[in-house]
Specification:
single chain, alpha/beta, UDP-N-acetylmuramoyl-L-alanine:D-glutamate ligase, Protein-Tyrosine Phosphatase, Chain A, eight-stranded mixed beta sheet, globular
């Protein structure tokens, strides 16, 4: 008996495949073909170690301001699954998602293959975008690129935001190997936008071998910062007097530049004005990416969970002045580079509150303490039972002039966000 509610479907798809991650496109392609999914609308695929979610939100905002009805698929979610699938700027409803899962399940049974949680969700999102006849789709890669379920759909424009050392068990043990996996979202004869100024040779080499129209930040498009605004130059023309993105951090200007380059490549099918870009930059939101909650003490939420993202977080903390001390609520999954993240933040945190997150991949609290010390953290470290307790302890210890930083995982941010909301 198939489920009838979204909650029922989510429980079903979580246990439908024996592995939570099973790389490969054969299963997805088989079900896609049974569904006869025809993406007649332009598809923008967004890959990268960091910056994917921000780019997806910026593209969504800019295209939305231009009047287009856009389908956007991102992952993971913070508080509810509906966050992953947005149509016309709004989260997909429970009934719509349940109908999409039912369609995928029928096709899956006909194809006779199992699907992972992410594969199920990807196919459901694209099925819903096709049913709703969106004007464009933005698809965020979940893991890598070459064997990710999103890569079952050809990109009209592929974006590679960054290449860092993460998910090495699946993508390879070197920077070059990871770059090669991510570059496979590029398509022959189509535009590939790279927001990494110095990507691995495997990225540039793959783009050249397949004949992609490769646009590289710093060579083919770029930006310059001025006080309170910035300028863009690229093959589609220059734009001046642009507002800084509503998303915090200088890295967001690089992300925005890549988005403009991508939209310029689609200008024949999806024309967007300078005003649409400006309005999108001002309106964009992306919860959990250096998100500052109102009130005192200030609470900063950031999903940074690799050294590259942690370095950007540290830079943002330095630029956000006026606080007496920083208290961190911190945890990471056991397959992440805790040492590298700790080294990036060790000089920016005055007190640490660590706790395990939920799930089998959680790093035990005592192991977190050991890794922090090994990384050179000399500040006080307190151990808590869970993230909610760690947030309570941080609130009790913080004064009005302090700030609380909750980071290290989407699971940390979700728990911290829930805890913070209960106080207001």
């Amino acid at each position: 008996m198939t489920p009838s509610t979204l909650a029922g479907w989510l429980e079903y798809i979580e246990h439908q495949h024996p592995q939570s991650i099973a790389m490969g496109l054969d299963r997805v392609n088989a079900v896609r073909d049974v569904l006869a999914l025809n993406t007649g609308f332009p598809v923008i695929t967004v890959a990268g170690t960091n910056g994917k979610g921000s780019a997806c939100r910026m593209l969504d905002a800019m295209l939305g301001c231009a009047g287009y009805r856009v389908g956007t698929y991102t992952s993971p979610h913070l508080l509810r699954y509906n966050e992953r699938v947005r149509i016309g700027g709004a989260e997909a409803g429970d009934d719509a998602l349940a109908a999409a899962f039912a369609a995928v399940e029928q096709a899956r049974a006909a194809a006779g293959v199992p699907l992972t949680y992410f594969e199920f969700g990807t196919l459901a999102a694209v099925w819903l975008f096709c049913r709703e006849a969106v004007d464009a789709a933005i698809l965020e890669v979940g893991l890598g690129g070459r064997l990710d379920a999103v890569n079952a759909f050809d990109a009209d424009v592929a974006m590679l935001m960054s290449v860092g050392l993460d998910h090495m068990d699946y993508l390879g043990g070197t920077w070059e190997a990871i770059g090669a996996e991510k570059a496979h979202v590029f398509r022959a004869g189509k535009t590939a936008v790279c927001a990494d100024r110095a990507p691995p040779e495997t990225v540039t080499g793959h783009a050249a071998r397949i004949g992609a129209d490769f646009l590289l930040l710093g060579r083919d498009f770029d930006f310059s910062l001025q006080p309170l605004q910035w300028s863009y130059r690229g093959p589609g023309g220059d734009r001046h007097g642009l507002p800084l993105p509503a998303l915090r951090g200088n890295c967001q200007v690089a992300n925005a530049s890549a988005c403009i380059a991508a939209l310029d490549a689609l200008r024949e099918r999806l024309p967007v004005t300078a005003g649409d870009i400006r309005n999108g930059l001002v309106r964009v939101e992306n919860p959990g990416r250096f998100q500052v909650l109102p009130g005192r003490p200030a609470v900063i939420l950031d999903v940074a969970h690799n050294p590259q993202a942690a370095a950007a977080l540290a830079d943002n903390l330095v630029r956000m002045t006026g606080y007496r001390s920083t208290l961190a609520v911190f945890s990471m999954l056991n397959d992440k580079d805790v040492d590298g993240v700790a080294r990036a933040l060790r000089g920016h945190v005055d007190r640490w509150f660590v706790a395990p997150v939920e799930g089998t991949r959680a790093t035990p609290a005592d192991e977190l303490v050991r890794r922090l010390r090994a990384a050179g953290v000399v500040a006080d470290v307190a151990v808590c039972a869970n993230i909610a307790e760690a947030m309570d302890c941080a609130y009790q210890a913080a004064g009005d002039g302090d700030r609380i930083l909750a980071f290290g995982s989407f699971l940390v941010v979700a728990s911290a966000m829930t805890a913070a909301r209960k106080r207001f």
